[in-house]
Amino acid sequence: MKRGPPGPGTYLTKSKWSIVKRLRWPSRMPIDPYIVLLLGTVGLAALLPARGTGADVASDASTAAIAVLFFLYGARLSTREALNGLKHWRLHVAVLACTFLVFPVLGIAARGLVPVLLTQPLYQGLLFLTLVPSTIQSSIAFTSIARGNVPAAICAGSFSSLVGIVVTPLLAAVLLGSTGGGFSADSLVKIVLQLLVPFLAGQVLRPWIGAFVARHKKVLGLVDRGSILLVVYTAFSEGMTQGIWHQVSPARLGALLAVEAVLLAVMLVLTWYGGKALGFGRADRIALQFAGSKKSLASGLPMASVLFGAHASLAVLPLMLFHQMQLMVCAVIAKRRSRDPEESAQPSAAHVVQGQPQDRVLR
Could you read off the pLDDT tens digit of each residue along the chain, which spans 363 residues? Predict the structure, then answer.
């Protein structure tokens, strides 16, 4: 039975449907929804900052949340997985060098921008940003999209986080102490008690609780993010009650964004062409670019809260802005890299992790 020609209503329906599809909000926007929650938390702290007894309660709760956060980090992180990746040691050394050597050198060089472009507190936050370890989830997600060496990205991100628990506080002691950032022996003790001890406890208990943590990953992920929101609210509340935000003008924020854009661009170029100079193939260069040019918001925010105290609100601002910037830029780069021709000489690129949670890129 032949169908008759479609009526005018059919074309109208199809036309309307095509318009709806074009107007539909993309499912993979490079804007991290968690950044929206963080900004909302900042707005809440600006409108209703914790004061008096409420501030004391929020501070104690924030301290406990940080300890829980790093305990879960320790329980999740597979030390064996990170150490097994050392067989590809040249790539991991390159990632560590970018994260804990090249980034800090660029941060030190930015000292010349004070006070012309950046205020001293904003510069301290920028310098702290350069000391934070690399990400795990977003490095894996973007490497997977770009068809890079995903196993190497997993190991590099894990190893960077493992090393950063110790190296970041030590670098902060040397660099932030010399810039008047307020780093002291008391801060180092807080780092050990609030970050390192819970992390090591999680590592020790991992053989017994690792399976439980893996089974309840989604629920514990909410605990992670809720803890960080509490840390941000406490830090920005202290900043509001002490009037720190009066030191920041729109012009200074614009200058900070411009400096961070240059910083990210330099690291993206150095990691890509540096990998080529080291003789890495396409898959390894992709892993190096995404793992070596990014910074972890999840690790950096709690550390900043411990290191900077009441001044943490300004200290974490550069990290929050850089985090969103790196997600947006790397999403574009990963998409373009995914259209590169295949390289048969790079078998490591074939080990792509399918179904990686690409929208969960907080770390």
Answer: 555 555 554 444 444 334 334 434 344 545 667 778 888 888 898 888 888 888 889 888 888 888 888 888 888 877 776 666 567 889 989 999 999 999 999 999 999 999 999 998 899 999 999 999 998 778 888 998 898 988 888 888 888 888 888 899 889 888 887 444 445 566 667 777 777 888 889 889 998 998 898 888 888 888 888 888 888 888 888 777 877 667 788 899 999 999 999 999 999 999 999 999 999 999 999 999 999 999 988 888 888 888 777 677 788 889 988 988 998 899 889 989 988 876 543 444 334 343 444 444 445
Query: Token pair of 112, please?
Result: 């010349």
Domains of the chain in sequence order: 50-339 (1.20.1530.20)
Taking residue 302's Cβ as centre, other Cβ atoms within 10 Å add up to 26
Residues 135, 286: Cα–Cα separation, whole Å: 14
Q: If we measure between CA atoms, which residue out of 235, 226, 251 comes closest to residue 319?
A: 235
**For the chain, how far is it from start to end, CA to CA, in angstroms?**
59
Within 10 Å of residue 250's Cβ, how many Cβ atoms? 7
DSSP designation for 342: P
* Length of the chain measured in residues: 363
Cα dihedral 44, 45, 50, 55 sign: positive
Is pTM beyond 0.90? Reply is: no
**CA torsion through residues 26, 29, 33, 39, sign:** negative
Task: Report the alpha-carbon distance of residue 36 to residue 42 in Å, rounded.
Answer: 10
